[in-house]
Amino acid sequence: MIIRVQLVGTGIGNDPYRVDLPTYSSVVTNETTGRAFADVPASDVSPDVAAFVAAYPTVDLVTPLPVPFPASLASSWAEFLARRYDLGEARWHPVVF
Amino acid sequence: MKVSSFAVARPAYYDRNATSGTAVYSGSFIAPHAETVRWTVTVATGKKANIELTRMMAYRVTVATVAATAGYVARITTASSYMDILYEAHISNVLGYEAKDLAPAGVTLYAGETLDGRTYDGSTGGAYNYLTGCKYTTFDA
User: Fold this and answer.
1) Domain B16-140 CATH class label
2) Please, how many CA atoms are within 13 Å of residue B99, restricted to the half-sphere of its CB?
3) Which of residues 53-112 of B touch A (CB under 8 A)?
4) Domain segments of chain B as ranges
C-alpha cells in the first residue's frame, strides 16, 4: 500500500535519502518538506496503521496531515516490524507524515 | 529390495513457503537529486531470499544547464560490509544518453541482509528517466 512517510537521511556521503522501513518500493521524495511516498508491503503494515492511512488519505508531498501521526501508533508500528523481522537490534521507526 | 532409510529429501527452496516479490522504482523527468534509496528488500529471521533479477536504467530526457555525475547503485548490505553489485556513474549532457545494467541471477541473501536500489544526479537542471528494480523469492531458511 502507498503510504506517505517521513524522509530520513541527508543525501550526503553514506547517508542517502531513504524511508525508515525494511522493505519498500517506488519511493518518490520531497526533500524540502521531508515527505516521501513509498509502496510498503501490506504484510509490513499493522492494522491500526493501515486504518490511520485509510482515514487520512494524502494526495501530495506538501500538504500536512490534518492530525499528527499519534506516537502510540508509531510505537506499535515499530514493534510490529521488530516482531515480524525478528532481527535482534535492527529497528525501524517509520512515521506517517 | 527392502528400503530401510528414513531419510527424507528436504524440499527445494521454492517449496519451502516461498513468496515471490518485486521491488521497483520507475520515474520520468526526475530532476537532479542527492543519492536516494528508491527501494529496499530486507530478509527476516528464518528466511533467505534468492535475487533472481536486478536491473537498473537511467536515460537523459532533458539537457542540463550544467551536467554532473549521475547514475544508480544496486547495493547488497550484509552484517559486516556492503557490495555494489551494479554501479553507474557518468557525466553526460547528451539527450537520450542511456546507461543500463543487469545483475546476474543466483544471489542469495541471508537473514538481516538487504538489497537496495538508489539513484542520484548532481547536475544543475535537466532530468532523467529511471527504470530500476529486482525480482526475488523469499523462502524458509
Assistant:
1) mainly beta
2) 21
3) 111-112
4) 16-140
